[in-house]
Amino acid sequence: MTKDEIIALLEGKDDAGLFERAAAQRLETFGEEIYLRGIVEFSSYCRCQCNYCGLRGPNNQIHRYRLSVAEILDAVDELAALGLPTVVLQGGEDPHFDVATMGRIVQTVKKRHKIAVTLSLGERGLEAFSHWRDCGADRYLLKMETMNPALYPNFRPGCDFDQRLASVRSLQALGYEAGSGIITGLPGMTLETLADDILAVTELGLDMISAGPFVPHQQTPFGGESGGDPQVALRTMAILRLLNPNANIPATSALETVKKEGRKQGIEAGANVLMFSVTPETVRKNYAIYPGKNQETNTAAQTVDNARNLIQGMGLKPSISLGGSKVGQQVK
Ligand code: SAM
Ligand code: SF4
């Protein structure tokens, strides 16, 4: 697909055809299976200052929490007992969970359960990435947010574009199933920069690609900006599916926040992964990345039931497989 063709699709030139082709590609690669991932958001402390995120360090208006190691392991036990094949351990960039502590958590989970472990803990350095991989971590999610080096500093002050890209590449080199991705509709992005982002993120050859709309958070420097158009986010996912037929692509929670039935539409646009929070109810709503995030008061069991019902209601199958990467395999 050329950049001009991508821009035309992002403008909405052929929504019906685009979504139909993306869903057909998902079906061809993954059959009727949709992978399930439960996320345990174990720390809302963060040392970074991302201008879009409510968890940014300088935001002193939110309630911060950290789960204890025992609480994290309990949440994973519960998720495994519900038959979920993957846990995502996610948090702000919080050095309180040092390299050794995170390593022990990963080792314990892998010893107790036959499930895949995804980490999403920000840029913690090569030594940490390597140790956690040795401890058994299977996947790592580190979104670039944009592939545009000129826009990057506006979004993530104090962070370095090249450094983050190098981190994504080192995760790949360490043998993780590596995930990255973009936020759509951040201030200053245009359909042209988005088309460039789509092409550049595709170049990375990722196992997992996430694209979700920007949702403004009042207590951030971007609080007064417009949110990302959910329809553009859906088109982005569909184009990514066509360009990356074998990659895992999630229907993001940000999409559900800004659009009724957003996740369902995400699957219709080619996503093959559903991720949902199974963070303990006592703290879940305090993982306040953006307004509307984690407002459900369901138990983990209800959340998993709802996800399975959503998938079955679409005539698809909630997968019980680990949902490993098909990247590198030949397209069927
Ligand atoms: N701290 C780690 C990191 O940034 O890689 C992982 C946790 S971070 C909360 C997970 C993702 O949330 C980010 O990669 C970003 O894409 C997304 N996010 C944060 N704020 C957002 C917002 N206001 N709208 C949409 N997505 C947002
Ligand atoms: Fe921290 Fe991640 Fe939020 Fe940035 S996006 S402020 S690194 S939690």
UniProtKB/TrEMBL annotation:
Boundaries of every Radical SAM core domain copy: 32-246
Q: Key word S-adenosyl-L-methionine present in the record?
A: yes
Q: Which residues cross the membrane?
A: none
> Which cofactors does the annotated protein need, by name?
[2Fe-2S] cluster; [4Fe-4S] cluster
Pfam families, alphabetized = BATS (PF06968), Radical_SAM (PF04055)
The positions making up the signal sequence are none
Cross-referenced InterPro entries: Aldolase_TIM, BATS_dom, Elp3/MiaA/NifB-like_rSAM, FeFe-hyd_HydE_rSAM, HydE/PylB-like, rSAM, rSAM_sf
Please tell me whether the keyword 4Fe-4S is annotated for this protein.
yes
Q: Which keywords accompany this UniProt record? A: 4Fe-4S, Iron, Iron-sulfur, Metal-binding, S-adenosyl-L-methionine
What the entry lists under NCBIfam families is as follows:
rSAM_HydE (TIGR03956)
* Name of the protein described by the UniProt record: [FeFe] hydrogenase H-cluster radical SAM maturase HydE
What organism, scientifically named, is this protein from?
Desulfoluna limicola
